[in-house]
Amino acid sequence: MYLPKRETEGKLVPAEIHYRSDYSSSALHEVSHWCIAGRERHMQVDYGYWYQPDGRKAQAQQAFLEAECKPQALEWIFSEICGLTFQISLDNLNGDSGDTAAFAEAVEKKRDLFLMQGLPLRAYKFRTALSKAFF
To answer: Rounded mean pLDDT of 110-123?
Structure first.
């Protein structure tokens, strides 16, 4: 979850990215969303994306997968730098998972395209910082 910077009790609170503390992949995934979100989305909770919890029907799951392709492609790139195994996340254990193979292929194609054509600026800077930390 992403919380934008805000004022609380007269104090400016910096933006926060919340992730599952026991999973590095969760942190890399949330940072991937941050890398893609533009200035307007950085001012909104969870970058202004809708989120339906686990148990989504097929149509909602398809919308979820479309929104997740780019961030998961970046997460894959970041994971490789960190020496972590990347796993596609359908995030819908109690609902329609959608076409897993097609989604995995779409994420891989987007990853390859990022690597060939270049990363968004924030993602490039983050990848550079990870490279320095892990090599």
So the answer is: 97
